[in-house]
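Q: Given only this backbone (201 positions), what sequence would you predict?
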């Protein structure tokens, strides 16, 4: 199973972190050990002082694909949910400033949270995602605002990585990312329906 992630797929999020809006998708991966087991709390690692939440629309690959054309891409996914891409922002900034890869800041144990899955609609349509922290909305966005639509993302990724059944794609986070602290409770929504809930320790 691969966890493929897309960075800066919302213009407002790229701008809020002072990053350039990319001309092509920014792709990185998390190992499967990054998955937080269901119902487990997220424990802030001792080596970071600034972990940020990032809510994302997540899709699941349903069959093997390579060099997928955009017009066929939608048929390669069969389920959707929301997920959390936890990021050690202080470590990421340090690594980026040194010109180094930043997988350590993105792919650490427990940094990927998946909500409950549902079937994908038969035809592409916009989906609304939202994150609440302690009952207050902190992030909100629509897949209609993607810089790179899902069909083009799947096609792009498949040029470099063979997609296999069960792989998941985190499609990017909207603006509003921010720190989490011990005692916080995060709840993620897809189209108004609660799909995940995680406590921070």
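A: Predicted residues:
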């Amino acid at each position: 199973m691969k966890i493929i992630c897309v960075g800066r797929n919302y213009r407002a999020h790229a701008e809020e972190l002072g990053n350039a809006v990319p001309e092509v998708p920014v792709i990185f991966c998390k190992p499967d050990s990054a998955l937080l087991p269901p119902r487990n709390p997220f424990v802030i690692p001792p080596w970071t002082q600034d972990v940020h939440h990032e809510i994302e629309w997540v899709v699941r690959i349903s069959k093997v694909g390579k060099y997928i054309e955009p017009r066929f891409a939608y048929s390669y996914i069969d389920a959707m949910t929301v997920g959390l891409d936890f990021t050690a922002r202080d470590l990421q900034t340090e690594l980026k400033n040194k010109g180094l890869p930043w997988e350590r800041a993105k792919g650490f144990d427990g940094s990927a949270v998946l909500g409950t899955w549902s079937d994908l609609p038969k035809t592409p349509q916009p989906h609304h995602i939202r994150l609440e922290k302690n009952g207050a909305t902190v992030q909100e966005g629509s897949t209609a605002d993607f810089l790179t639509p899902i069909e083009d993302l799947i096609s792009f990724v498949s040029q470099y990585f063979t997609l296999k059944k069960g792989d998941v794609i985190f499609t990017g986070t909207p603006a509003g990312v921010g720190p989490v602290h011990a005692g916080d409770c995060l709840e993620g929504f897809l189209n108004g329906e609660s799909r995940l809930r995680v406590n921070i320790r």
